[in-house]
Design goal:
three-stranded mixed sheet, 20 helices, alpha/beta, globular, binds magnesium ion, binds adenosine-5'-diphosphate, five-stranded parallel sheet, 452 residues
């Protein structure tokens, strides 16, 4: 594993250590970084017990520490190092079963990944944000390959795509449809690559084309992977022609899957496309209530309400916050959990509430970040060392406050509204291609969060 990743990991562990009580840290300290792919980090842990412990109680701590080093990470996957597993305490009552199987053992056979037993339709809270996606996924469980083929589900990270896709697989399993394969596109790629290496491509093709139901999660991973796309294209056609059902998820709509061949994109668009967007307050509350009930946390209504009122647009983080409050209160034997306690426990995890910043505060933090002074941002100077910070400050004020363009102009030495809009658009546009700038802006946002 490369040196740099190891160094990042050491920093992450240090951060985690600060957040956990010593006994908890002791349990997780031997975790190692295994790999990073797009927005997923894979961590290897010494036992199933440790994995479940992290998933049930420490997920927010891990995610927070990891995001400090790798801001793009949204998912954590685990692999359990089996050699050590044998010496660990068996834990039979864990509820989650995320698992990376060693799927390269048998490259020709296409095996479904293990499903998370929790990811069923019954556990999925339907709200305005996911109603269509839910209905679409449900409908294809009854009439395989006939009504909507393929089903293309897209939406941001942590909004329930995997949950819904696995719910389809569960439902079909229940109704006796045996030949269902749920895989991630990364696994598909691994199988393609491996079958090329060991010269079993034909066998792999035969096998995958015998599947009745192919569900591929996170298709965006195949961006730029030409050879695998080629294989997927032929698989797709073969299954489609035999009226076999295909379902695909993606973190973005078809037309934004740049780097995926046009002909595949057009296949993806032939059936039903449904999207999920972030949940509103009512849906967030319903999700929290449901989780509180199934996990028997027994948190009071006002605490659930407080968490729901935070603008989480990632359900994994929403759930993570609930778990954090529940586990911290139980670790400290607190019976009456209050909103104050929740606020304190979550202070570094809540999505920021934009309105609380003033332009002055933003200017101070931005100036400080770029080693200049707030007065320089207001000045007429046009050298690069002040124009960039000035534009960033304007961008953030426009994003984070409700001030109008002319008013923002007044905070910058009376600049007119067209200058303000120009600065705003410039930073907004450049952040799409300029990773350094994007990181700087995110760094400043974090600083704002800490100081508020
Ligand atoms: P994605 O695949 O879109 O990144 P996941 O399916 O992994 O998201 O969902 C993240 C977490 O949020 C999972 O624990 C999932 O069970 C939960 N979740 C998402 N949407 C809902 C919902 N509508 N009702 C209940 N739980 C949900
Ligand atoms: Mg997913």
């Amino acid at each position: 594993m490369n040196q740099q990743l190891q160094e990042h990991w050491a920093t992450i562990l240090k951060d985690i250590k600060k957040e956990l009580v010593p006994t908890s840290y002791y349990a997780v300290k031997d975790s190692k970084i295994h790999a990073i792919h797009s927005n997923t980090i894979t961590i290897s842990v010494v036992s199933e017990f440790v994995r479940n412990k992290i998933m049930e109680a420490f997920m927010p701590v891990f995610l927070f520490a990891i995001k400090k080093e790798f801001p793009d990470i949204e998912n954590i996957d685990f692999i359990v190092e089996e050699t050590k597993e044998k010496n660990s305490i068996p834990n039979t009552d864990y509820k989650h079963s995320y698992e990376r199987t060693s799927y390269l053992n048998n490259p020709e056979s296409v095996e479904s990944l293990p499903l998370n037993p929790r990811y069923i339709f019954e556990n999925f809270i339907v709200g305005g944000n996911n109603q269509l996606a839910y209905a679409g996924c449900k409908s294809i469980t009854s009439d395989l390959g006939k009504v909507y083929n393929p089903l293309f589900l897209y939406g941001g990270v942590g909004l329930g795509k995997t949950h819904l896709l696995q719910a389809i697989a569960h439902e079909c399993n229940r109704s006796g449809n045996k030949n269902i394969v749920y895989i991630t596109s990364e696994q598909f790629l691994n199988q393609v690559v491996h079958s090329i290496q060991v010269n079993t491509v034909d066998k792999f093709r035969d096998n995958i084309r015998r599947v009745d139901y192919l569900i591929i999660d996170d298709i965006q991973f195949l961006v730029g992977k030409e050879r695998t796309q080629e294989e997927l294209f032929h698989t797709f056609n073969a299954l489609y022609d035999q009226k076999k059902q295909i379902a695909i998820s993606s973190d973005r709509p078809q037309n934004e899957l740049k780097g995926i061949q046009e002909r595949l994109i057009s296949r993806f668009s032939m059936g039903l496309t449904v999207d999920i967007y972030p949940p509103d307050y009512e849906t967030r509350l319903a999700i929290l209530r449901n989780k509180d009930k199934t996990e028997q946390y027994g948190l009071p209504d006002d605490v659930l309400d407080f968490i729901a009122s935070q603008k989480f647009n990632n359900i994994r983080q929403l759930e993570g916050s609930l778990i954090r409050v529940a586990s911290y209160s139980s670790m400290q034997n607190i019976e009456n959990v209050t909103v104050e306690f929740a606020k304190e426990t979550l202070k570094n995890f809540l999505p920021m509430s934009y309105k609380k910043f003033t332009p002055e505060e933003i200017k101070v933090i931005v100036a400080d970040f770029y080693n200049t002074k707030p007065q320089m941002l207001e000045s007429k100077r046009r050298s690069k060392d002040v124009t960039v910070p000035r534009q960033v400050a304007i961008y953030l004020i426009r994003e984070m406050t409700n001030y109008s363009l002319p008013v923002i102009g007044r905070y910058f030495g009376g600049r007119d509204h067209s200058t303000i809009i120009h600065s705003y658009e410039k930073i907004k546009g450049e952040m799409k291609t300029d990773v350094k700038l994007k990181n700087e802006v995110e760094e400043i946002i974090k600083k704002l969060q800490y100081t508020s």
